[in-house]
Amino acid sequence: MILDHLDNVVLYKNIDPNLTLGLDFIKNTDFSKLEEGKHLINGEDVFAILQSYDSKPESECRLESHKKYVDIQYVISGEEYIGVTSFNNQAVLEDLPHNDVTFFEGTGQKIKVTTGNFAVFFQTDIHAPCIKIGHPKKILKVVVKVALKH
């Protein structure tokens, strides 16, 4: 997992070419000019989902992981907690391979992600996004899905 500020994306650009495409997208895109929904960056290998929602109580947020894609979650505006944990024999609640997501029982350690921060969740990082800080807040976030080349 990586948690950092948008100003530091250059530090992570040599990890993988597709990850670089995703990081360049969040660094160089004017999100006020994009509609919510899916935006292809490099076909189905790298794409972004722009979304707006209200953060939720932790009890409504499930731990998840992905087998095919790495998530880059960038908070454009707002703040939320993301629960994070590693694999430790958690019970699977639901496996949806056609959506590249597996949901797990349990909670994670909460990390705070605010405007301008991004988090990268690799396939081994179990995460629960959208958790409210205090009371529910409006969040504008882009999730870039990245299929690593290496």
* Major β-sheet strand ordering: 1-10-5-12-3-2
Termini gap:
17 Å
**Class by SSE composition:** mainly beta
**Form type:** globular
Mean pLDDT: 95
CATH superfamily: YhcH/YjgK/YiaL
What is the strand tally?
12
Helix content: under 10%
- CATH names the topology as Jelly Rolls
The low-confidence parts are none
- CATH C-level class: Mainly Beta
Judging by the overall fold, what is the CATH architecture?
Sandwich
What is the radius of gyration computed over CA atoms, rounded to a whole number of angstroms? 15 Å
Major β-sheet profile: 6 strands, antiparallel
Amount of beta strand: over 45%
Order of helices and strands: EHEEEEEEEEEEE
Oligomer: single chain
Please tally the helical runs, counting DSSP H or I stretches of 4 or more residues: 1
| Number of domain units | 1
Question: Please, could you describe this protein's structure?
Answer:
This protein is mostly beta strands and 150 residues long. It has one domain (2-146): YhcH/YjgK/YiaL (Jelly Rolls). It contains 1 helix and 12 strands. It has one helix spanning 17-28, and strands at 2-5, 37-42, 46-54, 63-65, 70-77, 79-86, 92-96, 101-104, 109-114, 117-121, 125-131, 138-146. The chain is globular. The protein starts with a strand and ends with a strand.
